Amino acid sequence: MNHSTATTKRTRDRQPHREKPPSVEGPAITLTQREKEVLGWTARGKSSWEIGVIVNCTESGVNYHLDNIRRKFDVKSRWIAVFKALEQGLIQLN
After folding, report:
1. How many CA atoms, within 13 angstroms, populate the side-chain half-sphere of residue 15?
2. Mean pLDDT computed over 60-78
3. What is the pLDDT of residue 11?
4. Alpha-carbon span 16 to 7, nearest angstrom
5. Which domains does the chain have, with CATH numbers?
6. In this structure, are residues 72 and 31 in contact, taking their beta carbons and an 8 Å threshold?
7. How far apart are CA 94 and CA 76, in angstroms?
8. DSSP conformational letter for 70
9. How many C-beta neighbours within 10 Å does residue 1 have?
10. 74-81 long-range contacts, Cβ below 8 Å, gap at least 24?
11. Nearest-angstrom CA–CA distance, 16 and 84
12. Whose CB among 11, 16, 46, 72 lies 3.0–4.6 Å from 41's, allowing a Cys bridge?
């Protein structure tokens, strides 16, 4: 083994092993048509109250759907749910 190969091997052995990033794939998430509609308006920056007016639903009804969406994605934020739904092709921004 020459000097540069030995140095490379020692350096490589000292570097921490990085875990692979979590896969986007997993159990398929299914959203109801209403959940997709609510999440689509959320992605466009609408508040729960505004979404309620648009889809003819109460603000608490919109929040109910958002709670279900967050539960399905196992996230705490509506914005992370939006990101995951976009990433998985469940909603689209047109």
Report:
1. 9
2. 97
3. 52
4. 16
5. 29-94 (1.10.10.10)
6. yes
7. 26
8. H
9. 8
10. 78/39, 78/42, 79/42, 81/39, 81/42
11. 29
12. 46
Which amino acid is residue 8, in one-letter code? T
Q: Any idea which residue has 């048509």 for tokens?
A: 33
Please name the amino acid found at residue 19. E
CA 50 to chain centre: 22
Where does 1-94 have alpha helices with state H?
3-14, 33-43, 48-55, 59-73, 78-87
pTM of structure: 0.70
* Token pair in block for residue 85: 């739904």
| Tokens 């052995």, located at residue | 13
CA angle 75, 37, 29 (to 5 degrees): 45
Locate 29 and state its tokens: 């998430």
Give me the residue label for tokens 């995951």. Answer: 84
